[in-house]
Amino acid sequence: MDSDLSQKSISYNSARFLVSAPRLEDCPPDIGAEVAFAGRSNAGKSSAMNAITANGKLARTSKTPGRTRLINFFSLNRENARLVDLPGYGYAKVSRDTKDEWQKHLGQYLNDRQCLRGLVLVMDIRHPLTEFDQMMVEWCEHNKLALMILATKADKLKFGQAKTSMLGIARKLEAFTCVEHLIMFSSTSKRGVDECREALTNWLEGPSENS
User: What is the pTM of this model?
Assistant: First the structure.
């Protein structure tokens, strides 16, 4: 394990914006440990990151889906430990060429980033496992990357409905060994925040397979 990752317990409240990167070569040095957040546009990814870090302004939220167009890095209180906000996928009103460019650089990040310890896939509990979600699950399975799924906006459903949706998601993911955590989440009620933080810490503080 890197010595700079064994110094202090991670505090998610310490998260601060570090840099935005349009391309892989613009990312911070590929050392330490980072966890990336991905999700279809308007799935609640930015709100989830803000809830996890107790910082309502950390990741931008917008009623206009697809606002995140860069790979955004946030530093934590331990050196070379980071959270990463990946570009949203879906409804952004941009050209096809621009979307293709986003996807190319996103693919390069996911394929080539050696310090990536896990992926957090954010999906709306009311509309789970979209085509994009399934593509990301299959990518993680193929590349043996640890996956955490946050089923967001759970406060929009009655608890019984939310539980039924979670059971349905779990059933569809039974065959995927990459899924380490499936968490019912609400950025409004803060449901699932502590569970998510604990899982993130295990990834960020654990030994790297590349070390």
Answer: 0.89
